[in-house]
Amino acid sequence: MDRSKKVIFTSHCVLNQNTVVCPLARAKGPYRDIVQKLMEEGIGIHQLPCPEYRHLGLKRKPMTKSQYDTVEFRNLCKKIGKDAVNIMKEYLDNDYLIVGLLGIKGSPSCSLRGEKGILMEELLSIAKDNGISLNLLDVPGEYVDGKDNKEFIEDLDGFLSFHQDP
């Protein structure tokens, strides 16, 4: 079977809400509507590691961006960002289309719009240094799996249809 040669990079919790700090999880597992839409479009999903989980584990307390903004955490995010960009370069060198990057609005690590999260700041800086420009979309903070997410799914549909075939 032919590959679509299309891939999207996503924040970890799009596919695994089990790593989200309690009590902020908004799905039992993945965001099913988002995953379903990506599957319908034949787009591969590359899940980024969760830096908050790696840094403090599952029993961490909710923290702000300023609380996470330490040398140790920022270095972890740089490491994850560098690895992600190397993976992006491999896809691009093999004629794949990176549809974009899906973040989480308001996340201290993964927010893409407004005040960027620390992981996304580092990843986007490294991507820019490597000549990689990415389309960006945030899952809204009010997104809850199984609820009325029609407006965001329409935004996601427009975001996905914006790309061209490789």
Q: Your description of this structure?
A:
The chain has 166 residues and is of the alpha/beta class. The protein has a single domain, classed as Rossmann fold. Helices cover 42% and strands 13% of the residues. It is built from seven helices and four strands; from the N terminus they run βααβαααβαβα. It has helices spanning 12-15, 32-40, 51-56, 65-68, 71-93, 118-129, 150-161; strands at residues 6-10, 44-47, 97-104, 136-139. The longest helix has 23 residues, at 71-93. The model has no long low-confidence stretch (mean pLDDT 94).
Helix content: 40-55%
Largest sheet: 4 strands, parallel
SS field, number of helical segments: 7
Strand line-up of the largest beta sheet? 2-1-3-4
The CATH topology assignment is Rossmann fold
The name of the CATH architecture is 3-Layer(aba) Sandwich
Percent of residues in β-strands? 5-15%
| Low-pLDDT runs | none
Our count of domains comes out at 1
Secondary-structure-based class equals: alpha/beta
- Write down how many β-strands occur, each being a DSSP E stretch of 2 or more residues: 4
- Under the CATH scheme, which class? Alpha Beta
Distance between the termini: 16 Å
Rounded mean pLDDT is 94
Order of helices and strands: EHHEHHHEHEH
Radius of gyration: 15 Å
- Specify the overall morphology: globular
Protein topology:
Blueprint: E1 6-10, H1 12-15, H2 32-40, E2 44-47, H3 51-56, H4 65-68, H5 71-93, E3 97-104, H6 118-129, E4 136-139, H7 150-161
Parallel strand pairs: 1-2, 1-3, 3-4
Notable traits:
single chain, alpha/beta, Rossmann fold, four-stranded parallel β-sheet
